[in-house]
Amino acid sequence: MKGNLIIKNASELVTCSGFTAKKGKEMSELGIIAEGAVVIEQGRISRVGPTTKVLAELKSSGKDLSPFATIDASGKAVLPGFVDSHTHLVFGGYRAEEFAWRLKGDSYMDILQRGGGILSTVLATRAASREEMVATGLRRLDSMLSFGVTTVEGKSGYGLDRATEVRQLEVMADLNRLHPLDVVPTFMGAHAVLSEYKGREDDYIDFLLKEVLPEVASRRLAEFCDIFCEKNVFSVEQSRRLLTNAVESGLKSKLHADEIVQLGGAELAAEIGAVSADHLLHASDEGLRAMAEAGVVATLLPATAFSLREPYARGRQMIDGGGAVALATDFNPGSCFSESVPLVAALAALYMNLSPEEIVTALTLNAAAAVDRSDTIGSLDPGKQGDAVILEHPSYRFIPYHIGVSSVEKVIKKGILVFDKLSQGERRC
Ligand code: NIG
Ligand code: FE
C-alpha cells in the first residue's frame, strides 16, 4: 500500500538529510526546517521545505490534490521513521526465570555455558510452528510501530539446525508481507554452540556453510549474515571464515563484536568491511579507529548494557574519533527484553553522553546505513520512501528527555497513517 499525503506546519521538520552514514561531527547536523512540510506521492517523498513554499509550489504545478490526505502538524516535530537495526524478534518462549537468576547474581554467560540462555530459547523455538511465530511476531511489530519504528532488522539464530533457522527466516518474510513495517532479515545460525558441537565449533561452521547457507542464499531468505564473535562462542578466525563465505554467497556481513570481552571483533569488522559491528562494549581503541576508517557503522545497544548491568559502549569516544554510530534496541528474550526506543535514547544520552542531535541521527540515517538502506530510508529527502513519525511535542529534543516514554503520536509508512496514539493505537492496514 502506498499513499499520497501532505504533512504541513511542523514546528520542526527534522530531515536528517543525507544518503550515507554521518560520521563524527556530521552526526549533529539534522537539517531542520522550521514550519516545515513534506509531500509524499505514491509512497515516496516528492517535496520537502517550508510549508508556505511547498504549498505554493504544489499550487503552481497544477497538480490534482484531491488524492492527497493532509495532516496539520502544528506544534509538533516531524522526523524520519526510526530504524531498529538490531533485533532478535522471532523466537519461541520467554526467559523470565533467567532474568530472576541474573538478579540473584548469575551471569549471562554462566547461564549460557550451563545450557540455558540462548540455548533454552533454541528448544522453545524448535517447538514453535511458523504460524505461532507469525502471530507473536505481528504483535511485537505492532509494539515497535507504536515507538515510531518503520523498519526493523531481525535475526535467526534460535534454531541452530537447518529447518528451524530457515523457518525463522520464513517467518520474517511472512511478517514483511503481512505488516506495514519493513523487516530486514539476517541469518545468524552462528549464535551459540550446541553441546554436541562444544570443542568442535569449526565443524559447526562447516555445517552452516555446507547445509544451511546455500539454501538461505539461493532462496534469498536473508540480506545479512551475523555471528556471535565472543570468547567461548565463536572465535575471530571462525567469524572471518563464516562471514567471508557468506559475502561470497551474496549476503552482507555484520557481527556481534566485543560484547562480553575484548576479542578483536571490531578489528575483524574493519578488516572484512562489515556493514556494521554491534555491541562493542569492550572494543579496543585500535579496533574502533580501524572501524571509523573503514566506514563500519558502530551499532550501540545501551538497553542491553543496562539489562546486563555491564558498562556502556564508549559512544562519545567513537563519535569524537570520527566514527558513525547507530542505536538499536537488541530486542530479544534474554539479554534485553525491550523494544523501547525511548529507553535506548535516554540511556544513550545519560550514560554514553550522546547529544539529542546525535541520538536522532543514530536512530534514523545511521541506523538505515547499518542495514545498508541509507539510500532509500532514514531521512526526509525527496526520492526516499515516505516513512515518518510525528511527535506529540514540538521538538526532537523530547525523544531522550521524555525518559522511557514514547513521544510518538503518529507513524506514517509509505505515505499511509499506520499508527495514531489519538485513536488508541490501532493499526490502519
Ligand atoms: O545481542 N549476544 C548474543 N545475542 C543476543 C542475545 C540473545 C539472547 O540472549 O537470546 C545479544 O545480546
Ligand atoms: Fe543481538
Q: What does this 3D model show about the protein?
A:
- The chain has 16 helices and 16 strands.
- The chain is α/β, with parallel strands linked by helices and 429 residues long.
- The strands form two sheets. Strands 1, 2, 3, 4, 5, 14, 15 and 16 form an eight-stranded mixed beta sheet that branches. It has an eight-stranded parallel beta sheet with strand order 6-7-8-9-10-11-12-13.
- The longest helix is centred in the middle third of the chain and has 18 residues.
- It starts with a strand and ends in a 9-residue tail after the last strand.
- The model has no long low-confidence stretch (mean pLDDT 97).
- The site of N-(iminomethyl)-L-glutamic acid (NIG) has 13 residues, from α4.
Q: Tell me the number of strands.
A: 16
Number of helices: 16
Strand proportion: 15-25%
| Terminal-residue CA separation | 8 Å
Helix coverage percent of residues? 25-40%
Q: Are there runs of 5+ residues with pLDDT below 50, and where? A: none
- State mean pLDDT (0 to 100 scale): 97
C-alpha Rg, in Å? Answer: 21 Å
Q: What spatial form do the alpha-carbon principal axes imply?
A: globular
Report the sheet with the most strands, covering strand number, pairing sense and barrel closure: 8 strands, mixed
SS content category:
alpha/beta
Q: Give a list of the ligands.
A: N-(iminomethyl)-L-glutamic acid, fe (iii) ion
